[in-house]
Amino acid sequence: MLMARPGGENAQKDDVPWWMRYAGRGLGTVGSFIAIILGLINCLSIVVFNVACLIAGIWQMLAGFIVIVCEAPCCCFFIDYVQTISDKMETRPYWNKAVLYVCLALPPFFLCFLSMSTWFGSGMIFGTGIIYGMMALGRKASAEEMRTSAANLEAGMAQTSAPRANLVANEQPVSFTGVPTRH
């Protein structure tokens, strides 16, 4: 309970391992601080008239700020709306955070590809998005469940020629009708 987030629910809503939650939050917090600092260093490239790296540095600092608002609102307690934004992000599914963080991290790579500060700073935000993406996928099945599923699939394959769809109940076989003709 000491590590519980203020205003957050203490009940676990899903079966994501505790270490993965802390890894996502920790990498997001530390990575966003580093992204802000390295974005500032990236902005110093204006000295050599590299405007693309300047824009990438500004983007990286803004991305770091957004991630820190979502992951560690206690670091920005002096801004009024930070806690409400953080609470809204906590109610969203993990895949929403993953998409947000990956989309925030990609533009600096395209703008200033050769800068190590871009690779490291935005790379940490990208890594946070990857961790949240893995959390969205959920736990892997146990070895016994996978063996049972494989055995059932093998037994089912011997009886029918088409595999069964688990995601779509009204699966139709794929067929090619030919090239459309003009009338």
UniProtKB/TrEMBL annotation:
Keywords: Calcium, Calcium channel, Calcium transport, Cell projection, Cytoplasmic vesicle, Endocytosis, Endosome, Ion channel, Ion transport, Membrane, Transmembrane, Transmembrane helix, Transport
Listed InterPro entries: TVP18/Ca-channel_flower
Topology of the protein relative to the lipid bilayer: Multi-pass membrane protein
Pfam families: Cg6151-P (PF10233)
A Gene Ontology BP annotation from the UniProt entry: endocytosis
Cellular localisation: Cytoplasmic vesicle, Secretory vesicle, Synaptic vesicle membrane; Endosome; Presynaptic cell membrane
Entry GO MF terms: calcium channel activity
Transmembrane segments annotated in the record for this chain: 30-52, 58-82, 94-111
Family recorded in the similarity comment: Belongs to the calcium channel flower family.
Subunit relationships: Homomultimer. Associates with the dally/ magu complex.
Protein's name in the database: Calcium channel flower
Species whose genome carries this gene: Manduca sexta
